[in-house]
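Deliverable D2.4 — example input (structure tokens):
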């Protein structure tokens, strides 16, 4: 072997040893896994709630008829007006999920004063009467509501309800030419239905302020009893417009008002190389 060949072989062996030592000294770096982002989960649960409300309402008069004991045998009011009045109510309900709830409510409508007029013949001469009374009511309703998204603690909703109203009329005072005839007022239960719209606001996790509008229709029924010459009388029902405000207390907290819960995965242990 020539001198040049021997030098070449020695150099190759030396380079091979250096490369082997470098490969043996190399340690693979650990794998760093990026943890997933924090996920916020909104609490979505149902629960019982109680409510209390106050309102001011206006009742629209839908006319009334009455029996007479002279031809033609019946009569009707020329007009009738009902004044506005206050009411209070309470209820219990269940939040089924974030978008649907139901409740059962009982409201008391304070007296709405009534003023009306009738026309007829008195002793062969045309005459008119002045009629005054008032009605109050208990309203028992089963309601269902659809709720929408919540923005800055405000949740709009729409709803509908069916139930019954116990209408109680005061005595009707019919005055003609300074002479007053009193007809005893009637009290009876009637079918009623309602449509609602409004919004609730989160005061705390448990307390919501509720404000809205309710339209209620009450069927007609007996208004007053017999008195000399005329009676009984039957009103044709009412259309009632209500502006309402109240508070709801949600047991266990409202899913609308509770802040979202942050879910953090367990820490990732780095792999160990041996």
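Example output (designed residues):
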């Amino acid at each position: 072997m020539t001198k040049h060949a021997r030098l070449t072989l020695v150099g190759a062996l030396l380079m091979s040893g250096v490369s082997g030592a470098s490969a043996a000294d190399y340690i693979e770096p650990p794998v760093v896994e990026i943890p997933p982002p924090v996920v916020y989960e909104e609490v979505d649960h149902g629960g019982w709630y109680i409510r209390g409300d106050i309102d001011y309402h206006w009742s629209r008069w839908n006319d009334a008829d009455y029996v007479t004991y002279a031809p033609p045998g019946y009569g009707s009011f020329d007009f009738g007006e009902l004044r506005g009045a206050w009411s209070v109510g309470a209820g219990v309900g269940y939040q089924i999920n974030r978008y649907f709830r139901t409740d059962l409510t009982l409201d008391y409508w304070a007296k709405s004063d009534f003023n009306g007029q009738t026309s007829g013949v008195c002793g062969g001469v045309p005459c008119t009467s002045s009629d005054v009374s008032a009605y109050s009511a208990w309203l028992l309703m089963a309601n269902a509501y659809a709720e929408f998204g919540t923005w800055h603690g405000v949740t709009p909703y729409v709803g509908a309800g069916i139930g019954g109203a116990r209408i109680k009329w005061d005595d009707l005072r019919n005055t003609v030419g300074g002479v007053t005839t009193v007809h005893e007022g009637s009290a009876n239960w009637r079918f009623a239905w309602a449509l609602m719209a409004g919004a609730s606001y989160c005061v705390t996790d448990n307390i919501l302020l509720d404000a809205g509008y309710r339209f209620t229709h009450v069927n007609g029924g007996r208004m007053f009893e017999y008195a000399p010459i005329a009676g009984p009388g039957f009103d044709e029902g009412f259309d009632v417009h209500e502006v309402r405000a109240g508070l709801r207390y949600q047991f266990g907290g409202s899913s609308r008002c509770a802040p979202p819960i942050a879910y953090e995965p367990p820490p990732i242990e780095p792999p160990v190389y041996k």
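The first strand starts at residue 39 and ends at 41.
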